[in-house]
């Protein structure tokens, strides 16, 4: 049977104890939900999301915002989760991700799986990108290192390696961290033949 006690059109707290909604209350809530759903669907129809290609294995993205408020995304493009010939590309957006440019390749090397892009932006606006060069045929890391850009990704420096501490597999990981006093820090990890992992950080005092 329908409960007729304390029927109200508002569910706002007023100290009267348990409330029981009327048909009008439920109808108003449903109408509001329908209105918001229609509003969302209308927005999506007028502003379709950016579609990235699905003809390749696109993965491991790094999203950053430059000092001039441009949004950049870096990610790996390959034929599979692991394969030699994979490259790292960049797309840019001037409207906060509303739409992105076409992808441009910024890191590639014949016969190498370039992957696991990491890094970020320093306080001066320099973009520093760390990545791994991996041999998918031998399942061994080749080297890890970084490149940097002082013009928001238009051009990049030459590749510089960082130590791997004799690990058989190693890789940079995560975002670049500004730790103050002009210092920046990047994390990486390494695996030994016994399948044990060690985490490290490297610190730069000269902006990378």
Q: What does this protein look like?
A:
This protein has 208 residues and is mostly beta strands. It is 12% helix and 44% strand. The chain has a four-stranded antiparallel sheet with strand order 3-4-5-6, with no helix packed on it. A four-stranded antiparallel sheet has the order 7-8-9-10, with no helix packed on it. The protein is elongated and about 75 Å long. The protein starts with 6 loop residues before the first strand and ends with a strand. The relative contact order is 0.11.
In order across it, which strands form the biggest sheet?
3-4-5-6
H and E order: EEHEEEEEEEEEEE
Task: Determine the N-to-C terminus distance.
Answer: 73 Å
Radius of gyration: 25 Å
User: Portion of residues in helices?
Assistant: 10-25%
What key phrases describe this protein's structure?
mainly beta, elongated, four-stranded antiparallel β-sheet, 208 residues
Q: Summary?
A:
The chain is mainly β and about 210 residues long.
């Amino acid at each position: 049977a329908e409960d007729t006690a304390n029927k109200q059109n508002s569910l706002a707290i007023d100290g009267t104890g348990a409330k029981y909604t009327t048909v009008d209350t439920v109808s108003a809530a449903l109408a509001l939900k329908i209105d918001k759903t229609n509003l969302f669907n209308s927005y999506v129809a007028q502003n379709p999301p950016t579609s990235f290609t699905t003809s390749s294995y696109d993965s491991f993205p790094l999203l950053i915002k430059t000092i001039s408020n441009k949004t950049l995304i870096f990610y790996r493009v390959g034929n599979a989760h692991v394969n030699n010939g994979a490259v790292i590309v960049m797309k840019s957006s001037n409207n906060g991700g509303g739409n992105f440019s076409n992808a441009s390749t910024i890191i590639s090397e014949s016969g190498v799986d370039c992957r696991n892009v990491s890094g970020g932006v320093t306080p001066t606006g320099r973009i520093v990108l760390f990545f791994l060069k991996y041999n998918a045929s031998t399942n061994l890391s080749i080297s890890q290192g970084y490149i940097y850009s002082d013009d928001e990704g238009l051009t990049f420096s030459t590749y510089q390696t960082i130590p791997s501490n004799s690990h058989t597999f190693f890789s940079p990981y995560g975002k670049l961290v500004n730790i103050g006093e002009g210092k920046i820090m990047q994390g990486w990890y390494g695996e030994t033949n016994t399948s044990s992992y060690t985490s490290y950080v490297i610190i730069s005092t000269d902006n990378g």
